[in-house]
Amino acid sequence: MTGTGTATLAASTAAHGFLSPTGVEIVFLLVGLVTLGAAVVTVTTKQLVHAALWLVVALGGLAVEYLLLTAEFIAWVQVLIYVGSVVVLLLFGLMLTKAPIGRSPDADSGNRWAALGVAVAAAAALVWVVADAFRTTWIGLDGDAPQGTTKVSGEILFRHWVLPFEALSVLLLAALVGAIVLSRKRGKEEKR
Amino acid sequence: MSTTTTAVLVPLLPFLGAVAGLLTGRRAPGFVRPLAVLPTLAAAVLAAVVAWRQGGGDAIDAAGRLTPTGSVPIDLALHLDGFAVLVALLVGVVATCVQLYSTAYLRDDPRYPSYAALVSLFTAAMLLVVYSGDLMVLLVGWEIMGICSYFLVGHYWETEAARSASLKAFLVTKLGDVPFLIGILALAADAGTFRINGILTAVTSGGIDHPTLIALLLLAGVAGKSAQFPLHTWLPDAMAGPTPVSALIHAATMVAAGVYFVARLLPLFAASTAALVVLAVMAAVTMVGSGLAALAQDDIKRVLAYSTVGQLGYMTGALAVGDRDAAVFHLVSHGAFKALLFLGAGVIIHAAGTNSLAAMARTGGLAKRIPDAYWTMTVALLALAAIPPFSGFFSKEAVLGAAEHAASGDAKGIPGAAGWLVLAAGLLTALLTAAYATRLWLMAFRGTGPEAADHGKQPAAMNTVLWILFVPTLALGLAAWKLPDWFDGGSLTPTLTTSVLSTGCALAGAIVMYAAWRRTAALAARTPLGAVAADPDAAPYVSEEESIATHEAAYGDIAAAPDPADPGRALLGPLHRHAAAGFHLDAVYSALFVRPTRAAARLARFLDREVVETYVRGTAGAPRLLGEAVRRAQTGNVQTYLSALFAGAVVLAVAAVLVANGA
Amino acid sequence: MHLVYPAVLAALLFCTGLYGVLARRNAILVLMSVELMLNAVNLNLVAFDVWLRDELHAGQALTLFTIAIAAAEIGIGLAIVLQVHRNRGTADVDRLRDLRDDAPDAGSDTERADREEKAEAAA
């Protein structure tokens, strides 16, 4: 694994520069910008429902990025679960908590500036570290074997990861039951 | 039983009696009186046996060493010479008398068991001091006497006067005891032993390097214990104790311990001319000052207390002129008649219901009510005033004769100035003594006014004791011809010059006082004055306690009364006010010691409250402030917590990266 | 493709989500921000999986697990938020401050007032 990495690294240093991007890179960058923009609007907008809708854009953008990284199964799962169910759940949550429609001036708490500082610092630190470490690393996307097709994912999932997968299903069941128990109205207390 | 064994038993028996009394006193009240009287009586008898066996011959020495104790060894040593055995006999007899007297005087006192045990313990300690041949052992007895005195003076601790008097007695004598201890240690360091014999050998062979310094240090302790100027102020106040205690401790024995100590170590003091001069000055000031003060006192016991101070001054005067025979002779005879005077005063206080002479002067017929006390006290007062042929005359003559001997330069190594000083002061004091003795007698027994109430006959134990002590008071003077065999051998018989001079002074003092009394006595009827005890039929100690507690309230002063009929006041004139207050020595002490101590205490209190406490409060306050600050952070807002958490994580991550890169 | 692009994108998305978690008042918006952070991690996982050409595809498997767990989390989280909203009438994170440490003076003041009232009642 390490041997492969260093070989790729040695090969890529000469072959690929930042000034001559490939087509995939250009698309990835553009979609990434849209995703990041949508994410930023999600966390800053004053309209709660709009935030949920912008979240759809961000998550969808991420799905496209997965596709570009040749992980097609993950991309479809992303679309299915996140865009299809999680955001719907969130919208339900907004409605059930009587979230105001339209601009709500108090969408941000007083902690905002501290949050901004922490976030910017964390971003600077992370970007610096990541860029410093992977400056010259190249991913060969057009390789011999497909990386993330449904077939490959299915094989590894049900051959190597079958036990964690089953455990996960138990966890999901537990979460299901827990959510029902939590949100169920307590009949007796309500009557009283 | 050998003489040594007998002598060991003498201090041991009262000690065992005291221990037994303290242990059983509460549980077996029936044994208290026998346990108080019998060991003391046995000790007195044994002391007599020892004295008879010793017989004035060579000193008997016996010593045992329990264990090595470091550089200078401490021995359990006995030294029995003529001085020791006779003083021990005096202590034994007086202690027995006092124990007998106390059984009647304090008959219903709930604290009698502890009182009797303390008196026994005191007797044991005094006998130990007398017999001891080792300075450290002597010091043990010396300090036990001090603490017993403290407890016994404070016997009536319900009264304010007794409480403060006991504290004062303890503190003032301690003030002298500290230099005393240093002096003993310095002496032992020079001589290399605590044994008195060894020290005296060292003195004669010139082995003591600093005789003056050591003698002066020891004199401080002697002045404290023997109530010499300037440490005498505790003695008059100590009269707030029960009368038998005053008789035993503050007249006959304990205060004599200082004199006895100097007599034992006289060669040491004689080696230093300065010490002798200091001793002479001390004696002279003490004699004259106490005589004047005694003239002004109203409390009968305080008169006697100042008289004790003065008589002790005679003894130190005799020592200052290097004649310990005369000093111890006067010690013995004074011990007898002063014990008699005090015990008689106890009877008077009970019969009159007051301790105030002014009140007694307004009561008629007191002499008829208590004939035993009247006759014995009359003789004792004559002895005190040194009227021949009573014992006081002979012993005082011995002192004055020694002083005259020294003044004429016949005594070897004694400065003539000391002799002149003691002689002059002694003659003046003889006049004053006769004057205040006459005043006491006239005011107590020749009062005019309503008849004294009849409280029945005084207890037999008390009267018997008076007559027992009457014998030596009357006849001890005859011993002047016999005693030199027991002592150093110098003549103690009166010489013509001093006899005529001192008897003349005494007669003059008595006559002047009588004349003054004739003039002022008439005033007594015109100024009513006096308060008597509320419980005349209770035990004698009740009368005394009540009169002590009420004296200041009734007469305006603890010492004097505003009585125009007092002949002492007429004679002293403007001096009376100062004499009554003991020449304001207490005020001087207050300014010198009490006030600085109080100021230091206030300063310490201030430092503690304001400075030290500030730090303590600071140590509590700083965490409290920090806690307040930290509490601010505890807002309950989860987002704030998370912000801090993530900020910390970022900082840690950056630090980790920097460290990993070797920055 | 350079690994830097997905890695930096993931980092920025993560920090955006972080900002949202710390700054948003509505609990559901906070949950959305949490989703953003999880997705940033997912992107990282996928990118590194592709780069390393792992035989077991641990990255993709882990991504799937993360998505599943995120779904469970959002379900439970929403249930909790709904419960809180039902009990307290609000879902604002910064108004849920039961863990705040109240100043002791206020408490003692009320106690003193109580005592005074009692004293008055007794009088």
From TrEMBL, chain A:
Source superkingdom: Bacteria
EC number: 7.1.1.-
Coiled-coil annotated spans: none
Transmembrane region(s): 26-44, 51-69, 75-101, 113-131, 161-182
Chief location of this protein within or outside the cell: membrane
Any Pfam family matching the protein: Oxidored_q3
Bilayer topology term: Multi-pass membrane protein
Keyword vocabulary terms for this entry: Cell membrane, Membrane, NAD, Quinone, Transmembrane, Transmembrane helix
Reaction it catalyzes: a quinone + NADH + 5 H(+)(in) = a quinol + NAD(+) + 4 H(+)(out)
GO cellular component labels: plasma membrane
GO molecular function, one term: quinone binding
Localization in the cell: Cell membrane
Top-tier EC class: translocase
Lyase as UniProt keyword: no
Function: NDH-1 shuttles electrons from NADH, via FMN and iron-sulfur (Fe-S) centers, to quinones in the respiratory chain. Couples the redox reaction to proton translocation (for every two electrons transferred, four hydrogen ions are translocated across the cytoplasmic membrane), and thus conserves the redox energy in a proton gradient.
Membership in a protein family: Belongs to the complex I subunit 6 family.
Annotated PANTHER family: NADH-UBIQUINONE OXIDOREDUCTASE CHAIN 6 (PTHR33269)
Protein name: NADH-quinone oxidoreductase subunit J
Species per Swiss-Prot/TrEMBL record: Streptosporangium nondiastaticum
Automatic annotation (TrEMBL), chain B:
UniProt keyword annotations, A-Z: Membrane, Transmembrane, Transmembrane helix
Keyword Membrane included in the entry's annotation: yes
Domain NADH-Ubiquinone oxidoreductase (complex I) chain 5 N-terminal: 68-115
Protein name: NADH-quinone oxidoreductase subunit L
Subcellular location as annotated: Endomembrane system; Membrane
Gene3D superfamilies on file: 1.20.5.2700
Keyword Nucleus in annotation: no
Any Gene Ontology CC annotation: membrane
Domain NADH:quinone oxidoreductase/Mrp antiporter transmembrane: 132-403
GO BP terms, alphabetized: ATP synthesis coupled electron transport; electron transport coupled proton transport
Residue ranges crossing the lipid bilayer per the database entry: 6-23, 35-52, 83-102, 114-131, 137-157, 169-188, 208-224, 245-263, 269-296, 303-321, 341-361, 373-394, 414-437, 465-484, 496-517, 641-660
Chief location category: membrane
Species this protein is from: Streptosporangium nondiastaticum
Pfam families in alphabetical order: Proton_antipo_M, Proton_antipo_N
From TrEMBL, chain C:
EC number from the UniProt entry: 7.1.1.-
Keyword Oxidoreductase appears in the UniProt entry: yes
InterPro entries, per database record: NADH_UbQ_OxRdtase_chain4L/K, NUOK/Mnh_C1-like
Region (Disordered): 98-123
Catalytic reactions on record: a quinone + NADH + 5 H(+)(in) = a quinol + NAD(+) + 4 H(+)(out)
Membrane-spanning residues: 61-82
Keyword terms of this UniProt record: Cell membrane, Membrane, NAD, Oxidoreductase, Quinone, Translocase, Transmembrane, Transmembrane helix, Transport
Class of the enzyme per the UniProt entry, highest EC level: translocase
GO molecular function: NADH dehydrogenase (quinone) (non-electrogenic) activity; quinone binding
A GO term from the CC aspect: NADH dehydrogenase complex
Main subcellular localisation: membrane
Pfam family, one: Oxidored_q2
Membrane topology classification: Multi-pass membrane protein
UniProt superkingdom: Bacteria
Record localization: Cell membrane; Membrane
GO biological process, one term: ATP synthesis coupled electron transport
Function: NDH-1 shuttles electrons from NADH, via FMN and iron-sulfur (Fe-S) centers, to quinones in the respiratory chain. The immediate electron acceptor for the enzyme in this species is believed to be a menaquinone. Couples the redox reaction to proton translocation (for every two electrons transferred, four hydrogen ions are translocated across the cytoplasmic membrane), and thus conserves the redox energy in a proton gradient.
Quaternary context: NDH-1 is composed of 14 different subunits. Subunits NuoA, H, J, K, L, M, N constitute the membrane sector of the complex.
PANTHER family tied to this protein: NADH-UBIQUINONE OXIDOREDUCTASE CHAIN 4L, NADH-UBIQUINONE OXIDOREDUCTASE SUBUNIT ND4L
Homology family: Belongs to the complex I subunit 4L family.
Name the UniProt record assigns to this protein: NADH-quinone oxidoreductase subunit K
Organism: Streptomyces klenkii
